[in-house]
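User: two proteins, same treatment. go.

Assistant:
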Amino acid sequence: METPSTIQTGGSIELVCGCMFSGKTTELIRRIRDAQHHGADVIALKPTIDNRYSETHIVSHNGDTLESHTVDSARDIPSAAKTADVVALDEIHFFDDSIVEICQQLRDRGQRVITCGLDRDMWGDVFTHLERLSRIAQTTVLYGRCAVCGNRADRTHRKVPLLDDNLVGGPAEFEPRCERCFSPPNRPKPGRTVRGLAGPMSS
């Protein structure tokens, strides 16, 4: 049963979410550095699939970087996190539904968990595990600027055709859009497996 994010052990869960180019990773890095400044032992983790800019660092779209480690799946997080005071998890939409229970496990052993990820896929559908996590986390929703009209953006638009099965990408492939300007691509044919903004990694 899901419970409030802060319990007697002192652990907590924070979620920073929104569309691409809304400043999520920048905010994650800011919170990490603030925790380090106050003497906390912090470990930053990200999924192995996210190697767009670096395999050894969390990198925001504006070029800000912070050293991190990679994990293949959500179940690898507790052992990687060890006894750190703060566990920072970037791009959590790439993980499967078990990420919610993993975050609760870390919280229950007294760790502060800071998570960051997209709340919607490129078809505009909500990632169900992000929605579940938002119910038990201290949630911050960030917005981008629509690349078409300049209004507040809450969707991630695919700019190029779906030519392969790996949909991890950056400014060349995706841009922020508002609901009015958003135009989702055709969905893959039944039986085709895609990764990245199409959905989470398998466990």
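Protein 2:
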Amino acid sequence: MSLLEKRLIRETSFGLTSKLWRISWTYVLLLCALAGVGYAALYSAGGGSPEPYASRHILRFAFGLMLMLSIALVDIRFIARLSWFAYAGGVTLLLLVMHMGHVGKGAQRWIELGGMQWQPSELMKIALVMALASWFHKASWERMGNPLFLVPPALAVAVPVALILKEPNLGTAMITAVVGASVFLAAGIRWWKVVLATAGVGLAAPLAYAHMHDYQRARITTFLNPESDPLGAGYNIIQSKIALGSGGMWGKGYLLGTQAHLNFLPEKQTDFIFTMLAEEFGFVGGVTLLGLLGLIVLGAMGIALRCRHQYGRLLALGIAMNFFMYVFANVAMVMGAIPVGGVPLPLVSHGGSAMITVMVSFGLLMSVHVHRDVEFSDGRDEV
């Protein structure tokens, strides 16, 4: 056996103990810190009690943490082989939602599995990133320039986006499209194709608006002028802005937020939890939380850059973009920068399926980190 072969065996065939050492425990601590912020926020949302939100939150995070560490130990090459199976499973769940999904707030987005309500569109985003990473990790620069090579992955993005729009769930559909586009960009698609696709979306926007549901058009109208219906469609965002402003620089104090605790602030345990935190801890608290979220995004990007194989790089970047879009959509929504939509703040908002979905994605991210030096058998990795 040659020295090169022995070296490859040492690098790619390490045991359980070695894998545990290779986990980024600093990154795990960042996730625990974020979940701790979520516990404190949900304790406040419960009126100074761990019930009904905070206790469930910490139990779900503990389960999600064990799940994340278990996934981190799975060989990334095995995960890569499962990518398209995961994608097919995600599409199947989206189809099942259309026929037997739970209807809530005018939309059919949830399905009951294992005694818990799941939103398959959230799982689909992870499966889509896996499938696109599997497709593009084989691609050379020349193949990326071939339009025919890009047709299958483009369809892979279009199918779940169309199914999510059918639910209807415009916000998640747009996030799914952006996450898919980010993988295309990271894989090396030509910029002129991106510009062309963006222009096409812009031209199609008036047609899309005409086919929106009434409540979706109302959200856009309210976004442009929330004061036009202060007690109806504009109520949520007006109360959110009042709470954000009333927090000032340092906040009103923990458990002392009036907008939240007097029930003026809607959905304070889910969509508007950032607003509640900003009211109690002020501008400084809000910026600190954003800094923690930013460190998690930057850490995921750092894992991607340190990975030696293309599959891991694309998977990590896609997961980083998915997490960033969660944060951007939620924070921009409560500030009135974008129309209101049901996007939770990851690891902070109340919700079981969102928590588990995020932790599964971080498990995949950690597997990329643990197995960052492995080589795929097809020999097409970039080292």
